[in-house]
Amino acid sequence: MAEELYVRFKLCDGSVQTILGVMLKPYPDSYLTKLVFNHDFKSTKDDQGFFSVDEEPQIFAAILTFYRHGQLLLPDIFVGIRDSIIDKYLLPVEKSSRALDPPEPKTTTNITRVHLRGATR
């Protein structure tokens, strides 16, 4: 049976994301590579050939970017769960050595001097 060139994933919101199958192969121990290429691995593939994945589209896009470029670049909103994403997808990425500190709030103060007519100093 010929191997498909593209691997298609249908996410929980119904969107579809695609990657070349060869982009997964450098990471044989990762979850997506096992899902797609390990026939002993339990996978959910629908009648259209899409693998079903229960994941947020922004997170999954970052994961596919990792397979393409070797860097896990998560949107800021998901940085706090970076290590659990690495664990879930079995990515060969170094985990954070410490929890990321939230950014400090920025407070700006504008002071305007106003001179009132008839006011005395």
What report would you give on this structure?
- The structure is a single chain.
- Helices cover 26% and strands 12% of the residues.
- The chain has a domain at 6-89: Potassium Channel Kv1.1, Chain A (2-Layer Sandwich), CATH 3.30.710.10.
- It is built from 4 helices and 3 strands.
- It is elongated, with a radius of gyration of 24 Å.
- The chain has 121 residues and is of the alpha+beta class.
- A 3-stranded mixed sheet has the order 2-1-3.
Topology-level CATH name of the domain at 6-89: Potassium Channel Kv1.1, Chain A
Sketch the major β-sheet.
Answer: 3 strands, mixed
Q: Which segments are poorly predicted (pLDDT under 50) over 5 or more consecutive residues?
A: none
Query: What pattern of helices and strands is seen along the backbone?
Result: EEHHEHH
Throw out a few tags for this protein.
121 residues; alpha+beta; Potassium Channel Kv1.1, Chain A; 3-stranded mixed sheet; 3 strands; 12% strand; elongated
Task: Give the topology, please.
Elements: E1 6-11, E2 16-20, H1 21-24, H2 31-37, E3 50-53, H3 57-69, H4 82-89
Parallel strand pairs: 1-3
Antiparallel strand pairs: 1-2
Short description:
With 121 residues, this protein is of the alpha+beta class. Helices cover 26% and strands 12% of the residues.
